[in-house]
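During the reporting period the student researcher (J.K.) took over the structure-prediction task from the postdoctoral fellow and processed the backlog of single-chain submissions. One of the processed entries is reproduced below for the supervisory committee.
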Amino acid sequence: MYHPYESFEPVVKFIQVASKDPDVVSIKMTLYRSGTNSPIVKALMEASESGKQVTVMVELKARFDEENNLIWAKALEKSGAHVIYGIKGFKVHAKATLITRRKNGKLKQYAHLGTGNYNPSTAKIYTDMSYMTSKDVITNDLTRFFHFLTGFSKKGKLNELYMAPSQIKPKILSLIHNETRQGTKGQIIAKVNSLVDEDVIRALYKASQAGVKVDLIVRGICCLKPGIEGVSENIRVISILGKYLEHPRTFYFKNDASAVYISSADWMPRNLVRRIELLTAIKDKTAQSKILANSPTTMCR
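J.K. obtained the following structure tokens:
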């Protein structure tokens, strides 16, 4: 789903329906900015009070939302939920939900991964991507992810998803280097809020020098300089100004088998090195086309 052009309400209902479903065993999710009077947090409290296992990672260091998050965290604890207050040395910025449900005598899991916050108010004015799936390769990784957050596992490596600080930056650099090897047959399209990481910038310069066409859609800070002869003449940077605040992080690498990725992480040291983030490969062809259709540089080359 591409918000707000498509409603955020299905994400809210995903949590609300699960909170009332007697076959749902557990709900696990991360909360970075949930806003005031959050229907999602209220649904989590209702689920916990009804006896479901509810685990919530509430990031108390979310700038400007510290007070809100502390209030919600205390309310969730009071309802019986297991609240995690953070991981020492890192902010948890990943956006993920995992629901476990009994189905035909077995346990089945359902996931949501997003580029934006679980905040229905800002979802009306920020553009973001949501991905919902029950694929085992994704839900199994999210189980590992929540085990890591809760301290049940010290392994910070996932198999299908990629998690910062250990996996996302190496994966991004590897994807850029792969396009660089393709020379003029390479193409990179990335939409981010900010581009600051020095290693990523240097890799993009090398890609440009090899003939790779690089289109960057950067909403805010961009430390890369496009159009420098012999350095970045194959790189173009634009910023979209419109009715909505551009917030998704989406990446396309022409010669990668998966081709399209969504993430909670910008290309900044704080996201790639000092935060817990997630990167998801979108392998469904229809979903890939939808993401690329909303990267306007594909129509301008």
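The committee noted the following: The first strand starts at residue 2 and ends at 3.
J.K. will present the remaining backlog at the next meeting.
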